[in-house]
User: Fold Extradiol ring-cleavage dioxygenase LigAB LigA subunit domain-containing protein from Vogesella alkaliphila.
Amino acid sequence: MTQASGFNVPGTYLFDGDMAMKGYALNKMCFSFNDAANRQAFAADEAGYCRRYGLNAEQCRVVHERDVLGLLAAGGNVYYLAKFAGILGLDVQDLGALQTGMSKEAFKQMLLEAGK
Assistant:
């Protein structure tokens, strides 16, 4: 796990230039989900859709397994991954909960406490 200097947030990866390059195909695919036709194409042939965008084997695996931490480690940017999460009926708080290993309720409570 790559951490920013002085920061240690469990379940996070520093999204720097190297991670952007690593995740380019994955993030490009997730961005495509802005279009309903692309969401339907993904649902109809998930593996083919991943190949269409040039995802590597690890990226295909974590997409198939819906592995949020794996998606981040594979170069996924949370803003683009939110598009993928929407297909699954998840929101950004669901992603945060999965990322931290908390329940959604506990994650929301943590956010509320942090805002005080």
In short: The first helix runs from residue 17 to 22.
